[in-house]
Amino acid sequence: MNIGNAKARMQKTRDYLQGELAKLRGSRTNPQLVEEIKVNVYGSQLPIKQLATVNVVDPTLITVQCWDKNNVEEIKKAISESELNVSPSVDGNIIRVPLPALTEERREELVKIVKDLVEDAKISIKRVRREFLDSLLESKNSEDELERGKKEIQKLVDEFNKAFDEEFERKQKELLTI
Question: Which residues contact 167 (CB under 8 A, 6 or more apart)?
Fold first, then answer.
């Protein structure tokens, strides 16, 4: 494994973390809350974003405009059964998804979830560092190359960990802001 591969794997971890954080609802509603929900249509499981247009009307309402009227009930059912705990209503080919205001308790729960996601990302980064260092040792590099590799990978780890901490602070602030 070279430093470029290690950096690419760390970036994938960061991208995954950002995607997961975007799904968590703070004071602002995000269309990603429902876009990835899988719907059983056409003999397979498709995400809502491939079946409809998702819009945020206001902080407490998401609308899902279905492209095919035949899928409205299946999409509504998928949203109802999701972990969002919401009761969508149908108006023609538009599904309205009202989102209740977050309680203080739920906000604190979400902060804990964010903290766990960030910790998992940091663990993943450490795993990449370990694999990189193992590959350096196996390739029988000189002492100078080994030290340079250790410094390079540690610099990357520090850079990504700092970015993860910043993501946590940003998301925590968003979640706790009423």
Answer: 17, 18, 21, 118
What's the pLDDT score for residue 105? Answer: 82
Which of 106, 54, 107 shows the shortest CA–CA distance to 79? 54
CB 95 within 8 A of CB 57: no
Closest to 128 in 3D by CA, of 8, 14, 6: 6
Q: What is the pLDDT of residue 123?
A: 94
The pLDDT, as a whole number, for residue 178 is 65
Kindly write down the DSSP assignment for every residue of 22-58, as one continuous string. Answer: HHS--SS--THHHHT-EEEETTEEEEGGGTEEEEEEE
Q: What was the pLDDT predicted at 141?
A: 72
Domains of the chain in start order, with CATH, are: 3-23+103-176 (1.10.132.20), 32-98 (3.30.1360.40)
